[in-house]
From TrEMBL:
Upper lineage: Bacteria, Bacillati, Actinomycetota, Actinomycetes, Kitasatosporales
Gene Ontology molecular-function annotations: electron transfer activity; metal ion binding; oxidoreductase activity, acting on diphenols and related substances as donors, oxygen as acceptor
Transmembrane segments: 6-36, 82-99, 119-139, 159-182, 194-213, 225-243, 250-269, 297-320
Name of the featured protein: Cytochrome c oxidase assembly protein
Superkingdom classification of source: Bacteria
């Protein structure tokens, strides 16, 4: 295996980590409207992700940085062709972070309501757009012989990509509902489990259609295995949720996300961004990568930094592992 192949795998792992962790963040943000009945319950939901949401976004920064360094042509084509959707995601992430911090700064109802709206929409929009973006990458976009995207914004809005967006939105919301039931006590915990069951059923239908479509159009034996793992894990997550085993349900919903993302990357390889105009113009791990020397230096840096990141993030989750409920919210303002 060449170093550019190794870095393709590492970038896939970074995206899996990001969607696993930020997925339930987005889901909880959406649930502040779908699940919470009052401001106190909204605070409970927000507090379940309060200590970890910003750390989860480190995975996105690392994935973007690794792509820039390891595959500069992929990065350039992706960020220029998908400029508006990615800019909208970035703006949402900025506003979302501000909303978490500013919401409780003033007691006025209008102030807090506006920031709560911001949390909901800036969680929902990225959850949908990430699916649209990755579906288009797998499907192929208009890339010419100069590795430049020559399509339009409307080329990115097609039935397959919109379906991909609905899959990530429902899957992340289901993941968030299971996480909420894992991290809360009382009535909100029971309602989270009930909502997770309904969301999981919708997710299963959408995900099955999307994954089968992907497998039929671009898949092989390895991607088929990943698809089967994703489907089985999702069904098992639903079963454990019904049984009240939130820990197992959350782990398996995470496995669903990991297997689904792995399947997308398996259908891509050895491409990193296929061209829908001509297969000869595909961006691959070979023609889009940095020099071997650059990849070697990056590999050594990753070997040192990655264990440290995993240790401090794991420690954070351990420290804030206990459940919370409305009884722990003293001041609703």
């Amino acid at each position: 295996m060449q170093l550019h192949d190794v870095w393709f795998v590492l970038i896939a792992v970074l995206w899996i980590g990001y969607f696993f962790l930020e997925g339930f963040d987005f889901g909880v943000g959406v649930l502040t409207k779908l699940l919470a009945r009052d401001r106190t319950e909204k605070r409970v939901l927000i507090n379940t992700i309060g200590p970890v949401w910003d750390g989860n976004e480190v995975w996105l920064l690392t994935a973007g940085g690794a792509t820039f360094a390891a595959f500069p042509d992929w990065y350039a084509t992706l960020f220029s062709g998908f400029y508006l959707p990615l800019l909208l995601i970035l703006v949402c992430l900025i506003i979302r972070g501000v909303a978490f911090e500013y919401r409780h700064k003033r007691p006025e109802d209008r102030w807090q309501t506006n920031w709560e709206h911001a949390i909901f929409w800036t969680s929902l929009i990225p959850a949908f757009l990430w699916g649209v973006a990755f579906a288009n990458i797998v499907r192929g976009v208009k890339i010419d012989q100069d590795m430049e995207y020559v399509g339009t914004l409307f080329d990115l809005l097609n039935v397959y990509s919109v379906l991909g967006g609905l899959v990530t939105l429902t899957l992340f919301t289901f993941h968030g509902a299971v996480f909420a039931s894992l991290k809360t006590v009382g009535d909100i915990r029971e309602r989270s489990r009930a909502l997770a069951t309904r969301l999981g059923a919708v997710t299963a239908v959408l995900a099955l259609v999307f994954l089968v479509w992907t497998q039929v159009s671009r898949g092989d034996g390895k991607s088929l295995i990943a698809m089967i793992v994703a489907v089985v894990a999702l069904v098992a997550a639903l079963a454990f949720n019904l049984a009240g085993r939130e820990g197992w349900s959350f782990a398996l919903s995470g496995v669903t996300i990991a297997a689904a993302v792995a399947m997308l990357f398996l259908t891509l390889f050895p491409n990193v961004m296929p061209s829908s105009l001509n297969d000869a113009w595909n961006l691959t791990v070979t023609n889009a990568s940095s020099s071997p020397y650059t990849l070697k230096i990056m590999t050594w840096c990753a070997a040192v930094a990655t264990p440290l990141v995993l240790l401090y993030q794991g420690w954070t989750y351990w420290v804030f592992r206990k459940r919370i409920g409305t009884q722990h919210i003293v001041d609703v303002h």
